[in-house]
Amino acid sequence: MQSKSISIAVIKRLPRYYRYLGELLAHDVVRISSKELSEKMGVTASQIRQDLNNFGGFGQQGYGYQVEYLYTEIGKILGLDKKNNLIILGAGNLGMALTNSTGLQKRGFEVIGIFDINPEVVGTSVRGIPVMHVNELEQFIKTHQVDMAALTVPKAVAPTLAADIVKWGVKAIWNFAPTDLQLPPDVVQENVHLTESLMRLSYKKKAAEEEKK
Hints:
- The protein is 45% helix and 17% strand.
- It has helices spanning 8-26, 34-41, 45-53, 67-77, 93-100, 102-106, 137-143, 158-167, 194-211; strands at 31-32, 65-66, 84-89, 109-116, 125-126, 129-133, 148-151, 172-175, 188-191.
- It has a seven-stranded mixed β-sheet with strand order 5-6-4-3-7-8-9, with helices on both faces. It has a two-stranded antiparallel sheet with strand order 1-2.
- 22% of the residues are buried.
């Protein structure tokens, strides 16, 4: 079903569908039409149907979408039907925030280790998860199932650290460092550049102010 190429724009919308459907489930909504879902999400009903048709459609004409079923199927598409073991590289504020996020565990992302070089945090634990020295990183990766790594380290060390963990077997990197990583083609990455996001917000604010003039 997913052998054809799916556009990045569609993939970016899938987590939003998953989140909104989860909220509907929490309010005991059994079914919903593409029109009703579009009104909640600010996406056209046509766009919703086109997006979901990439994966088989899931809806019935005149009935709409069965919320629980669609929520489950999108979860499978996103790979959320299985647990993903995650390590956090960098025990600063952002690394700690990720570790303490209950949302990660609810979505099946299990933090199994945190790594840093700061002697003040190495040897401590967060939510029962040990903070280890980066010198232990290679051995840890080689002896544990590490599905993903979150990179919350300074820009200067991010490329070298990323290259090392890829060499040791990590194939998926969640990159929060303000730099683009040059990785082998068989390694996937998701970049979260917070300052770039803030600059996009600044642009939208400026554009909205100019429209009012």
